[in-house]
Amino acid sequence: MSEPRIGRVVVASLHQALSDCLPLRLEFYEDYLRPTRLREGRVGAASFLAALSFLRREDEAWAPVMTRAGRHAAEWEFTSLSALRRAWYRRLPLTLRVRAVLRLARALVSHTAPATRATSRVSGDTGRLEIVQSAFCDVRERTPAPLCHFYLAAVERLAELVAIDARVTWHGCRAMGSETCALEISAARAAAAPEAVGPNVP
Fold first, then answer.
1. Contact, 11 vs 33, CB < 8 A?
2. C-alpha triplet 136, 79, 188: angle, nearest 5°
3. What is the value of pTM for the model shown?
4. Running along the chain, 202 residues long, what does each successive block of 10 average in pLDDT?
């Protein structure tokens, strides 16, 4: 039976974030992320989880690396859409933009690992995303703070790309003992769309 694979965009975003934040440690992590296999999507779950385990031991590196990775992944997820659909999302009423953000976030979550999935719901200008079996929060012992920075940063960036001025907050994390990782997005108002996004996906 073949080993479960991690989504190409997720691995590529982590690789890019490590290059951005920990360039002197990149070669070490490439032993696990296997950059030559990125395009084929052949990075196994065991190697990916090992890289995450080592990253959690790096002094104060987890949050900035995961935040950067989440933003890269959101940008690549958004730019994979047609220009027409991107423009259409930015012209929707605010509540429908929130729904669009969560729809894109669910798609991104589904690309993380085979066992990871997400559900969402929206009430007015507020939405909630619940992630089951987040690979980023798979730890043996509970942590005092959330570890799902990747998803929080991704939702924040998707909101920016869909032109929403929004606040995203944690409402539970698997690493802290919750059954799911839960995020809430509260949209204040429509905003101007950003002019550009980050680097192209490898």
1. yes
2. 75
3. 0.91
4. 73 94 94 71 81 92 97 94 94 93 95 88 94 92 94 96 93 93 88 60 50
SS3 for 95?
helix
* C-alpha separations of 180 from 11, 156, 172, 174 in Å: 22, 19, 7, 5
Place of tokens 């992320």: 33
Contacts of 32 (CB under 8 A, 6+ apart): 47, 48, 50, 51, 54
Domain CATH number, residue 83: 3.30.1380.20
Q: What is the DSSP letter of 44?
A: B
Q: What is the dihedral of CA 136, 142, 145, 151, to 10 degrees?
A: 20
| Structural domain that includes position 68 | 1-202
What is the count of structural domains for the chain? 1
Which residues have C-beta within 8 Å of that of residue 117, sequence separation ≥ 6? 109, 110, 131, 132, 133
